[in-house]
Every structure is written in structure tokens, then in C-alpha cells.
Amino acid sequence: MGGDKIRKDKRQKREDYRAAIRKEGVSELPRKKFYRQRAHANPFSDHQLIYPPHPDQMDWSSLYPDYVVDEPQEQPTPAPETPSDLDLAPLRPKRISQEVEVADIGCGFGGLLVALGPLMPGTLVLGLEIRVQVTQFVEDRIKALRVQNQDAQLYRNVGVLRANTMKFLPNFFRKAQLAKVFICFPDPHFKARKHKQRIVSTTLNSEYAYVLRSGGVVYTITDVPDLHEWVVQHFEAHPSFERVSEEEQEADPLVNVMRTETEEGKKVERNKGQKYVALFRRLEDPAW
Amino acid sequence: MRLPYHLVKGCGGFVFAAQGCQIHSFSSGLEHVSTWRHPEDKPNEPSAEPQSSPAPEGPPTKRRKVEDGQDSASNGQPVESANGKPKSRKVAQYDCPANERPFIQGLYATTDGRHLIAITGSDKTIWVFEHDGAGNLKQLSQRAMPKRPCALTITTGNRTILSADKFGDVFALPLLPSSTPESIETLTTITTTTTTQSPPRSTTPSTQPPSRSATPSAKPFKPQADPLTVHTGRNLKALEAQKTSLARREAILREQQQQAAAANRPPFDHTLLLGHVSMLTAICVGTTFSAASSDGRRREYIITADRDEHIRVSRGMPQAHVIEGFCLGHEDFVSRLCVAPGGRAEVLIAGGGDDDLFVWDWLRGRLLGRAGVLEHVRKGVAGQEAAGKVAVTRVLACGWEEGARVAVFVVVERVPALLHYELLEDNTLQHRETIPLPGDPLDVEAIETPGATARLLVAVYPTEQDGSSLITLDKDEAGWRQGRVENLPAGGDVKIGHEELQKILYSTESLRKSSDFD
């Protein structure tokens, strides 16, 4: 079949391209056309995902190799609030010197990540994306940028992971680990029947509150006015969050980065579309 | 064939056992007292049952439910359906008539023994019965939930039912629905804010009751895309067409929306407390001293388990939106949670598709230990030497000898034995023995006996012809003395194949993930 042949050629080209770009020391930036994937993923299905059973078992060393701590094996590890020391201990991976504090949920092709990296040099930034091909693109992009900026030591603090955050956020992050969470141009899921698939909902907001420290901020941006309304309503309805005032919002330099540096943000810019921004601060939990 | 008993529950000195769509009650001496039947259960007309012809029959359950609602409403029994309109499109997906039967899926008792609660599967209904203290049930309420409840629990004080559903949400329902729903509604808007889709801090109070399916703002349809967000010319055309037809349809739509809002309005009070993006499998309430507070008052927590290996610990009402922590470490689905009795309320025993049971300090999310299940199934059960995996379906912990010993009994799906463990002082869970049974246990319950000896009641399947499917196990010096409960009430004969029945009775293993796509 002709169609099959064309598809095969395409796939072959894609594979060849990726194999070439993944060779050590390649500094060429990856090209999107070899990483295209359907824009939507079903967050309810059991994808073949890799995730740690517990955040303590997460191996960050491959994502942030420059932050790996060379420690003697027998050093008593400080016990955080979840020291599951019995059976989990032998699996404890190599430690890194600091923790991820900024997460970009649904990072897409990684525009924001790449912008945040040099802006927050002392902070580990992680992008999370559910689509395999897109995650690989960002991986290759970061790799190339690290090579290109070898001397300036840039982009060492940026990493990307394939994950379904709607299900597995607490597998990666401990309670109150994060300072900032970005949710940029999420899938709008227009149909009411699909609203449960939206990445913002009152029940899911409890998980964002769990991983955020008090005072931490959720950054949201969308070009769909109804989704913006939905996001605002659901965060404001959640007692753990309050909306950041517009004044403060506009004073935050990261808001502008989010507006202009995300891939989706650039697209909306090209189409002269509207962008709706809302920030929410994690409040302290009430006494219990 | 005769249906086996598949659920047993002690309640106020009596024992309730579910058989298909019926609940039978027994005295402590295991004499039959009375029987409750699901309204759709018609034992005398087996021909009316949807038989092994799934395709043509496939009666739309939801439509049937509405009809029933009208029937019983005329009897003065209010039927409460969260969503009145039949979703005919969805019905087509249920090609399996096994799931269409309103089997009793769960049986729960309040601690005071005055109320019994049942979940039925296909009609997603929670039934509350009053127990008169003599083994008789009086149906108090029948509430059809928006999604199928998987498990429920009752908060301390026996006031509120917490229902965990297949969609991942936990709803709170008052045990006894108030006759004046308005007052309840205002109460919930004060005490819990998680469900109210309208912002609680906003100055405009919403009169609309919280309903998760409705969008926060019910307003006439308008295209959510605009000329700037559509990416192709064809979509742009579609958008324009949409806009022209909009004006015409607006009036009709507005009217429809009003009607839909009225229909969607749940006729009974139910408050969304929390939710996972995963099917919930178990829920329980833990009470302990809060880590932060120093007033010495016990706090209530809601512990929920899902198919994606999580055990979540949330604060109790009214702060159920605060996640206190997770017990993470399971590598397969969690299907059963059990808080240890006898002053050991900080210990949680969890089982599921893993090879082991996990013992947790649930408030701190600390793993205290593990106890093998698969190894003892292989070692101690005839015919299971090559078993590759286990699915735990029951974990029952009982405090015996005045709470000095905590015995834990575990049922594994399709394994004809009961595993007996003991929770030791140092919180290790030690395997004591494997008790062989004549059939696969479906449920186990510890029942009070006049004597001091420990007694278990086990529902088993399959049983030989005309044999009783309820078995008693009495502890004596030699071990466990097995007896059969005789003189079970007649009936319970339903034309159903073994295969179809097994689909209903053995549903836990199917929680295991088997997908192999990206």
C-alpha cells in the first residue's frame, strides 16, 4: 500500500533523525517535525508510565547529573517526614544536592522550561509532559542546549519527565516540596462530559496544595476565556488557595516570561489572540 | 442455580448476609429471621431475568431505574436519582448483563448496630436500613449516586456516610436524609467548601446546590473558540456557522438549560469531599491524635485507596480538602484497607495486587512492615503451588482476648483458604496459619458468641449441591472447627451461568493493569 509505504518512510526518517541527534556531543537543536504527536492524551488510561512508588525512590541523578552528590554509602541520610526506612532503603538512589522546586505541568515542547533555566540558575526546574514524543523532543532540546552552553554552564538545572501528573504527582514530589507550579495553556476539554479531564478541578487542586509549600504560587495561563473562568472559579473555591492580586501579578517577572516564552504563548501571539493569566497563592493550612 | 452468599456483616448482635439481590438476617445462633429483597429481584419469574443473550436484551438500566422510581414514588417511597435523564448512549457499552444485575456490592453496619447500609451495583444505589434490634430491616432511604459507589464507610458518631466511587470522588451523605433538604444545604455550605463550585469567599451567595457535573456557571451555550483560537480554515467556517445558528437556538437552549438544571439538581444532599483521578477501591476512617494539636482531642481522617497504588490520608470533615499525606510504596493496586482495632488505631493494614500486605503508620506515611501473602498461598494451599500473583479481597482485623491480641484474616481471590495473621506488639504482621476451606471464601466476619471462644462466619463459593454456603469457624484447642449453617432460607435460585456469576464475584483481579500502549 502506498500510504503504508509513505508512513513507513516517515517513521524511518524520524528514527534515523533521532538516533543521529542522540549521539553524544551533538549540539544541534532538535526539529519539531520529527517529534509530532496528537495533541491530546487521555489522562485516565493506564499508559506505560514509569514512576517511582515513593518520592524517596525517585532517581533524579540522570535528570540533573551536575547536582549529584558524591557521598559515602554509609552516611546516615537525614530522615524527612516520610522515612520509609524498612524496605525502601536499599532502593534509595543517588542523591542530588537540592530538590526540584519549580514544576511546569504539561510543559509541551519546553519553551517555558528553556526560558526559566537561565533565569533561575540556583533552582531546579522540572517539566512534566504526558506525550512521549514531545517529552523526547524536550529531552533532546535540553541536551543540545547544555552542549551549546558548555562554558556558561547553563541549562544544568532544567529537566523533563514523562508523567501523568493528574494521577502521579505525589509519586514525584513530597509534601510542600515545590515553590512554583506552572500550568500553561492546558487542554481545554470543551465538552462538559470531559470536564473531569481538565487539569484544574477542586479535587485535583488539593494535590497541588499538597506538593506546594505555603506561600507557593500556581501560575496559570490560557487563551480560552471559559477555561480561564473555570480555573479561577475552581482555585478560588478551594480553601487552600487565594488569588494573587493583579498588581502583584504584573510585578512578577515570571508572568511575562510565561506570556511570551511558552510555545503556545508564541502561537497565540502570532494569531493576535488573547491570553488570560491568573496566579494563586498557597495558603497555610488551618489549625487542625 | 442457587446463588452463594457473598457478603456477611454483623450488626447489633445479628448477622446480615447478602445473597444476590437479597439480604437475609440471622440471629446470633444463626437462625434465619427475615429477608429483604431488592425491588428488581423477582425470584419467581426467572424468565424475566436477562439471560445468556446479552446483545438483544441489554435492558437500559438507567431507564429501568427511572421507571422504578416512578413506581415506588407512588408508594410514597421517594426515589432519588442524581441524574434523571437516561444516558442511552452509555447503556450500549454495558454489553455484559452480569453487571446489569442489582447485586448487593457492599454491606456496612453502624457501630451502634442500629443501621445497615447496602450498595447495589448496577443501579449505583446506596440503601439505608433501620435495624430494629431483632433482625428486621426497615428501608429508610434509597439514594442513586451519580457514579457507581465502590466502597463506603461511616464517620465516627454514625452520622455521615462517605461514599467512594468508581470515578474517584468521595461524597459525604447524611446517614438519615433530612426531610428539609434546604436546611441541610445551608449547613453544608457552611461546613464544607470543597464542593461548592461557586467561590466561598465571593460576595454573591450561590443558591444552586453543589453539583460536580454542572459547570460553575450555567449559562447559555456560546462557542468557546473564537476566530483567533481556531487553527484551520474549515474550523473557522464551522465557527461562523455556529454563530449564525446561535441566535436562533438561544431561546430554546435557555429553556432547555433551565429544565436540565432542575433535573440535575440532586434531590438529596451529597457533598463532594475529595477526589482521585483514579478508580477508588477502599475507604476508611482513622481517628488519632493530630500531630499538630495539643488539646488531646482525637481527630478524624479519611483514608482512601485507589487503583493506581495510592493510599491518601485527608483530614476529616470539614477540612477534607487538606491532604495530610500519602502511604506510598505499593506497586500494584490497593483493594483493601483496615485500621487495626484494640487501641492500635495508628496502624493500617493494606492489601491488593502486591505479593505482600503492607503495614502502615498511616498518619506519618511510614511503612512499618510487610507480610507475605503470595508465599503463604503457594506454601499452604493445595493446588496453588504455582500461583504467580494474588489479589487480596478482604482484610479483617479483630481484637481478641480483650484486645490483647489482634488477629487478622485475609481472603485472596480464587484461593480456597483463609490466611490468619497476628499483629504483634512491635507492629509486625506474622503469619499464623492457613485455614483450608471447601470453597473460595467471598467474605469473612467475626461474630459475637455467647461463649468466650472466637467465631468466624465465612461465605464460600462454590459449594456442593444443596450445601450451605455459609460456614462457621470456631476456635478450639485443635484449631478451627468447621460447621455449616443449615436451614438457610429457601430461594435465591436464579438462572445464571457460573461464568457470569464469577464475573460478579471475582472482580478484584481485574483491577490489575495490563495495558501495553504508550
Oligomer: heterodimer
Q: State the secondary-structure class of chain B.
A: alpha+beta
The rough form of chain A would be described as: globular
* DSSP helical segment count of chain B: 7
| Silhouette of chain B | globular
Major beta sheet summary of chain B: 5 strands, mixed
Separation, N- and C-terminal Cα atoms of chain A: 67 Å
**Spatial strand order of the main sheet of chain B:** 5-9-8-7-6
How many DSSP helices of chain A? 9
Named CATH topology of the domain at 99-288 in chain A: Rossmann fold
- Rounded mean pLDDT of chain A is 87
Total number of beta strands of chain A = 7
The sequence of SSEs of chain A as H and E is: HEHEHEHEHEHEHHHE
Which structural class matches the secondary elements of chain A?
Answer: alpha/beta
**What is the helical fraction of chain A, as a range of percent?**
25-40%
Brief overview:
Chain A has 288 residues and is of the alpha/beta class.
Helix-strand layout with pairing:
The complex is a heterodimer of chains A (288) and B (518).
Chain A: H1 2-21, E1 100-105, H2 111-119, E2 124-129, H3 132-148, E3 158-162, H4 165-172, E4 178-184, H5 202-211, E5 212-222, H6 225-236, E6 241-243, H7 246-251, H8 253-261, H9 263-270, E7 276-282
Parallel strand pairs in A: 1-2, 1-4, 2-3, 4-5
Antiparallel strand pairs in A: 5-7, 6-7
Helix pairs in contact in A: 2-8, 8-9
Chain B: E1 5-11, E2 14-19, E3 22-26, E4 32-37, H1 54-57, H2 61-74, E5 80-81, H3 88-91, E6 104-109, E7 115-120, E8 125-131, E9 137-144, E10 149-154, E11 160-165, E12 169-174, H4 181-191, H5 233-264, E13 271-275, E14 280-289, E15 298-306, E16 311-315, E17 323-326, E18 334-339, E19 347-352, E20 356-361, E21 366-372, H6 374-380, E22 392-400, E23 405-412, E24 417-423, E25 429-436, E26 440-446, E27 455-461, E28 470-476, E29 479-484, H7 498-505
Parallel strand pairs in B: 5-9
Antiparallel strand pairs in B: 1-2, 2-3, 3-4, 6-7, 7-8, 8-9, 10-11, 11-12, 12-13, 14-15, 15-16, 16-17, 18-19, 19-20, 20-21, 22-23, 23-24, 24-25, 26-27, 27-28, 28-29
